Amino acid sequence: MKQISHTWKWNIPEFFNIGQACTASHKNKENEEKIAMIVEDDELGNSEITYQELNRRSNQFGQLLVNLGIKIQDRVLIRLPNSLDYPISFLGAMKCGAISVPTSTLLAPEELVYIIKDSGARALVIDKKAWQFIQPELQKSDCKNLRFILLSGKGEFQSQEQFILLDIHEELNKITAINPFYKTKAEDPAYLVYTSGTTGYPKGVLHAHRALIGRGPASQYWFDFHSSGDDRI
């Protein structure tokens, strides 16, 4: 490790996107059909997705956001249980230049509403069951920026005047054409993570797209992870 530290040089490109790097970089390559992710879905049991399908679905999600008018660096807050919709929306939002805001399912409704307001989220990705509990708290709160509620999972929902409610799967299945996404730079903001807030209100910590590159040395030299093989994390 000491020898490596003396010879190591960071290679950070001018343009870089976490969503693209995690999905599109595998396109037309040997591992395109390999399993990219296995999720213990709270409703469906074990679910899996290939790199090819993850790339396609996250592209559709990014295009959906663009079609809805989500702009570069708009916040897209994600509040989902274990499901494939989580990585699809997390990566898809970053692909189109938006900022993903991942949150925990353990947050109380008032805590989630605080983060929605503090982050200035324009869209909320949430499962239909959780929406039933969050909706009353949102309706009495002044979340000026929030406009779109993208609903995941099974079940019915009722439209309302305050927000535009959409079923994620129905909307993604409508998208057949993907336009070129905004080309993010490595220094551009990618995702916003909130602290646990043990000593006060949670605080947002903004990460640039280059953050993924920073994980490279640990995975290669510490964990001895090889992306070309069948290693799993």
Q: Key features?
A:
233 residues, alpha/beta, Rossmann fold, five-stranded parallel β-sheet, 9 helices
Instruction: Examine the coordinates and then state which fold CATH places here, giving the name of the CATH topology.
Output: Rossmann fold
Structural class: alpha/beta
Number of domains: 1
Distance between the termini: 22 Å
CATH superfamily: ANL, N-terminal domain
Q: Total number of β-strand segments?
A: 9
Q: Mean of residue pLDDT?
A: 89
Spatial order of strands in the largest sheet: 4-3-5-6-7
Low-confidence stretches: none
Number of helices: 9
Give the overall shape.
Answer: globular
Helix content: 25-40%
Secondary-structure element order, N to C: HHEEHEHEHEHEEHEEHH
**CATH top level?**
Alpha Beta
Gyration radius from CA atoms, angstroms: 18 Å
Q: β content, as a range? A: 15-25%
* Largest sheet: number of strands, sense, barrel closure: 5 strands, parallel
CATH architect. name:
3-Layer(aba) Sandwich
Describe this protein's structure.
Helices cover 35% and strands 20% of the residues. With 233 residues, the chain is of the alpha/beta class. It has one domain (14-222): ANL, N-terminal domain (Rossmann fold, 3-Layer(aba) Sandwich), CATH 3.40.50.12780. It has a five-stranded parallel beta sheet. Strands 1-2 form a two-stranded antiparallel ribbon. A two-stranded antiparallel ribbon has the order 8-9. Helix 3 (51-68) crosses helix 4 (85-95) and helix 5 crosses helix 6. The chain is globular and about 55 Å long.
